[in-house]
Amino acid sequence: MTHYQTTLREPLVFEGVGLHSGAPCAVEIRPAAPGTGFRFVSSGVEIPALAEYVVETARATVIGKDGVTISTVEHVLAALFGMGVSNAELAVDGPEIPVADGSAKVFAEAISATGLTTQREARQSFVPASPAFARDGDRVVTVLPAGALRVKFVADFAAPIGTQYFDGEIHPEMFLKEIAGARTFGYVHEVEALLKRGLAKGGTLENALVFAPSGPLQPLRWENEPVRHKVLDLLGDFALLGAWPQCEVVAIKSGHKLHCIMTQQLRSQIGGKLSAKASS
Q1: Does the CA dihedral 15-226-260-148 come out positive or negative?
Q2: Stated pTM of the model
Q3: Helix/strand/coil for 74
Q4: CB atoms within 10 A of CB 150
Q5: Which range among 92-96, 127-131, 146-150, 164-168 shows the weakest confidence by mean pLDDT?
Q6: Average pLDDT of the chain to the nearest whole number
Q7: Where are the domains of the chain?
């Protein structure tokens, strides 16, 4: 099958609150022309969804330009990226993307329902010529040449989560079934600390999976839901590469900071290496 660029058939609108700000937020995802990629528009400022526009990675991926910032972009970008969308404009009202249920499920399901338009221009892909590495202490991300996008992720958290592993080839059907519904998560003591710092103001048991010492406070969607959410975050961050990565990503205990380091490193190496040839 030849891979061409795609966009949404119809605009999609999502409203809610921001996870960290607690403020009302909305995003309209609109069809976009071939070669546009993903771009955000807020307060009259257009912000390309590219790694060089990342301004913060502490608790979420935040992009910004000309004094305008948009927080928590990773879930909606993961949905677009994972569902095979190439081009989209995201008009944002508020400081964040709405948190929904803490996953990418509502975005991915809406994309699946509305469908995609094939734009008959070849999808840009990035095929690394050699392995690339990024390290932050005991956290590592490795990108290896491969025939398709595959993610292997090892997560290691304090009890009761523990060590979890996920391995899968990324395509729309797999993303919708196995990744999109994995919720953001944390521990009771972390939530309390974030609230004291003025963060997670919009967090509730309806939009975040919370673990007490005895276990999760809500039913799990998968036994290894936390590591699946880490894969979701990684895909959202790798959407900032600006091209479809035809590679294997091996991540150990990584997060937004290291993903940003890696995508910036890869973008600095891309130059003329982006392939506009239709891949099969």
Answers
A1: negative
A2: 0.93
A3: helix
A4: 16
A5: 127-131
A6: 93
A7: 4-273
Is the peptide bond prior to 128 cis by the omega test (within 30 degrees of 0)? no
The set of catalytic residues is 256
C-alpha gyration radius of the chain: 18
Across-strand partners of 156?
163
Q: Which two tokens stand for residue 209?
A: 């999976």
pLDDT at residue 54 in the model:
98
Segment (H or E) for 227: helix 225-238
Instruction: Count the Cβ atoms, other than its own, within 10 Å of residue 173.
Output: 10
CATH top class, domain 4-273: alpha beta
Of 72, 140, 143, 66, the C-alpha closest to 102 is: 72
Q: What is the DSSP letter of 99?
A: -
What contacts 196, CB < 8 A, 6 or more positions away?
Answer: none
CB of 37 closer than 8 Å to CB of 107: no
What does the buried/exposed string (b/e) look like for 233-263 if buried means 16 or more CB atoms within 10 Å of the residue's CB?
Answer: bbbbbbbbbbbbbbbbbbbbbbbbbbbbbbb
Length in residues, the chain: 280
- Bin 150: left if φ > 0, else alpha if -120 < ψ < 50, else beta: beta
